[in-house]
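To whoever is on call:

I kicked off a structure prediction for a single chain this morning and the downstream step that reads the tokens threw a length-mismatch warning. I double-checked the sequence; it's 160 residues and nothing unusual in it as far as I can see. Pasting both halves so you can look.
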Amino acid sequence: MKTPWYKEPWAYLVFILPLSAVVAGITTFIIANTDADTVVVDDYYKKGKAINQDIRKFKLAQKLGVRFDIKVTNDELVLKPTGIEKSFPMLNVNFYHSTLAHRDFSVKLTPDGKGWMRQRIDNDISGKWRIVVTPFDNQWKLQTTLGLPQQQFREFELRY
């Protein structure tokens, strides 16, 4: 007497393997469409043209001798001018997280009595950050990448 197909164990193996591939494919499709990559730039050509303009601002900062030492602790940002003996009425400092765009933030710094720029930070700053410093008139620009927080002053290394 022949047994029916649904009582054979090999029949289920034949069905389960393709079914698991279909389920894995659908799951991958759902994950790919719900968690978009925020690091990718939509218009890379315009972004590339803007980079060339930014390089001029970096070179102007070098030419002017603008340099800073930077210290970022868990609750405070301190910029100490070490280049030219010029005081800046206000600086814009932008923090760009290396992978999570929603954590990006910016602060505006004004000098204290010593000429140092200080600002309290309420955001979570742990991790790797690209830090961009520009003056109020946006004539020059400095940029570096740091792992934060850090307890000691560090020279603001210029990186394009």
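Update from on-call: the warning came from a stale cache, not from the record. Cleared it. Sanity check on the structure: The chain has two domains: 7-34, 44-155.
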